[in-house]
């Protein structure tokens, strides 16, 4: 190989980033008939869907589905492959969807293949060739040398908004004081005794986060909620950082400071759960050296967390470490400036819009340093609409945003970043991109007829109305 080797690829739609948003965008574009190329810098499509975490924001806190279409098709594929657990109430703030992340790897690969999406893995997009706000091509670097990919329409699902920024879009980065939500490494433990864990919850509910919104609490006491969790029969509980068990462990140095230890099931046959608790805050993940330097500390926290669980939490005495995420989890980097901006009020008031192309329902969820976390529920356990303009980067005519880089204020981002809305936005972006590539709306993202797009999305199973 020499560095001068270069290849040309022509597509109808190019999707940059194969996380939850990009996978759904690529599937939607391919289903709509577009020759679709899905590019990722990493080795495996699926992003955080593969780390063990549940999908939040697929249902609202009343238990109504707000995600349909491609996202649901991925869950159906998991079910077909024997790895679907399904929707669970966390009895704290939300409902989420649990599944086996190993099976999700298969499901993502099977559906991309089924719909004929061309994958370019191990390929970093590093350049956008654009003129007057229109991207003609992107350049990728991979083992084959450089690849120039041309298309009439692009989806930026890179999480970081790399394509939009390379093409000239403006953005906000993290918080106003240079703060960033923590980087975390998800990990799993198998051999968990669910009955013993739920018995402990019922004996000592003061150690657990329960009923943090009226929609979930519904007038119940903590003891009553603990009984509901036991009735649900799944190992899904949240050990709280300010409860005696965890607070005392943090105090004596037996645990690192953290807001919660979130425990969710991944496999009944392996008696396995995923744990979300590790954290290193205020690192700019766009600085690759700083991001990489966090791996060691996060691995150290996992070791400590496993010891803590085995030594202190009934049900975990014989559990073992069984896996960690394939990459450091990044919650927050850039928010691209769009034609419209999702606001904290839109989220908290469950705002509806006739320009909505997908829904979210997750609370404003901003993890902070140490044991800090902001958690503000959506009104009445409802959902809000994500308006199309939040996916349209200001000043660009053929790039559509999807996923955690869309246009939102920081608080709204703390909600819309979760995977349910990312998947819904992915479907909307991929569908619109395919139609634009086919010549609809003069090929300009700013001229999309949102009513037409909504009607097409509804026809394809997306949920845009009819829920709280
Ligand atoms: C620790 C943690 C816990 C979380 N917990 C939950 C939870 O329980 N439930 C939930 O629903 N959500 C949760 N979230 C949020 C959610 O997982 C993410 O916000 C969401 O998955 C983002 O999806 P995305 O597709 O927008 O971006 P990403 O998943 O970040 O995907 C972007 C992809 O683009 C690729 N890429 C980036 N730049 C380039 C480039 N220049 N060239 C080529 N490829 C590129 C990356 O390799 C990556 O695969 C959590 C997040 C973290 C980090």
UniProtKB/TrEMBL annotation:
It is an enzyme of class 1 (oxidoreductase). The keyword Transmembrane does not apply. The keyword Iron applies. It holds the Pfam family FAD_oxidored. Keywords: Iron, Iron-sulfur, Metal-binding, Oxidoreductase. One of its GO terms (molecular function) is oxidoreductase activity. Coiled coil: none annotated. It comes from the Bacteria. InterPro entries: HdrA-like (IPR039650). This is FAD-dependent oxidoreductase. It comes from Candidimonas humi. The lineage of its organism: Bacteria, Pseudomonadati, Pseudomonadota, Betaproteobacteria, Burkholderiales.
